[in-house]
Amino acid sequence: MASSMILYWGSGSPPCWRVMIALEEKNLQGYQQKLLSFEKNEHKSEPVMAINPRGQLPSFKHGDNIINESFGACLYLENQFKSQGTQLIPDSSAEQALVYQRMFETLTLQQKMADVIYYTWRVPEDERHDSAVKRNKEALSAELQLWEGYFQKMDAGSYAAGKNFTMADVMVFPQIAYAFRFGLSPEKFIKLGEYHNLVKKRPSVEASWPPHWKENPQGMDILKDF
Length: 226
Hints:
Layout (H helix, E strand, L loop, with lengths): L4 E6 L3 H12 L6 E5 L9 H6 L7 E4 L2 E2 L3 H11 L12 H25 L1 H4 L7 H23 L14 H15 L8 H10 L3 H6 L2 H5 L11
Parallel strand pairs: 1-2
Antiparallel strand pairs: 1-3, 3-4
Helix pairs in contact: 1-3, 1-7, 4-6, 4-7, 6-8, 7-8
Protein name: Glutathione S-transferase A-like
């Protein structure tokens, strides 16, 4: 079944990483994959554009089914292979509610991180404002504190939505790992650091760890002062 799947992905991209973790958790190793370079603009190549007119990664196809949005692809895999591998969406209504809540809150964290990390890359120099930088940093700081607070209220060794690894972790862990890659301090965000250390040892995460992070463990320091 996995051989009928193809994933185009980029190293270090949290959305790509989500899909790869989900594939590992559902025991779908052996899928076709193509690692592409953002720097070389390979995400705009013909094979990608053929299934994803946005020219973005991930781009994912299973047989004739195309689903490129990472949240959609992960939910698709869980629904298509419910009885295989890890159950990522729990049956209990209370547990399911918290999983969905944390899953979709990840999008807010992702956006606020992007507003800080990519500001100088996305905004032309003559359009940048110190007030915008300050506002973006304050918004991200509050968001990170919110997530730190979530884990403070949970038992030691908990995952994002409780005692079990779920789709909430598939979604949020790559974003948390990305924050630490860009300099977030585990001494200041103790619970997020503990969560990061817990999940990074999981086989699905180790198997899909961004290759260029392995080659160069030293990240950037954009978030070091948070």
